[in-house]
Amino acid sequence: QVQVVESGGGLVQPGGSLRLSCAASGITFKFSAMGWYRQAPGKQRELVATINSGSSTKYGDFVKGRFTISRDGAENTINLQMNNLKLEDTAVYYCYARSIFMSTNTWGQGTQVTVSS
Predict the structure, then answer these.
(1) Alpha-helical segments (H) within the chain
(2) What pLDDT is recorded for position 75?
(3) Residue 89: what are its φ and ψ, rounded to 5°?
(4) By CB atoms within 10 Å of each CB, which of 33, 66, 68, 72 scores lowest?
(5) CA distances (Å), 82 to each of 26, 55, 103, in order?
(6) Spans of the chain, pLDDT less than 70
(7) Taking Cα atoms as reference points, which of 65, 71, 96, 106 lies closest to residue 83?
(8) pLDDT at 28
């Protein structure tokens, strides 16, 4: 099975920065796409950012210009650099990974991001 593990969540002041990482592993994993969604209490899950095998990126309108998604050389780890964080960015951030051998996404457990003054 494909394993997806997030890290880097925590507490940060408004206007601060945080960097999330997500690693996908497994002998069946071959990078197709990875990305981040987030969900706050009482809200629907929403797109944060995605990156595909061609390094094309997509961002949710509410984070574009503040967040940057990237991948490492091994192409099984992605990073989400979050700058100028706002109170409304508080949510559980979930990473997904899609293998070229699979038709569905594999999701991580999520990491809590809390923005509070």
Answers:
(1) none
(2) 73
(3) -80, -10
(4) 72
(5) 27, 18, 29
(6) none
(7) 65
(8) 80
